[in-house]
Amino acid sequence: MKSPSSRASRSAKTGQFVLTSERGEKISAVEGMTLSPRMAKLLALGVRHGLSGDERRSLIKEEIRKKK
Q: Is-above-0.70 flag for pTM?
């Protein structure tokens, strides 16, 4: 039997599963995917500035547009 700590958490309000960045990294690692240094730096910047998910997505979109 699995330990309670290994269970996926659910939001008490909505009943939906919550996927944290830590769990997302573990899933990606199983698939063989890793963040590029550029993207890791960008995401760390968003966390450091306390940006919301929408603000981080906008920041990523801006960065991708700059690269082209």
A: no
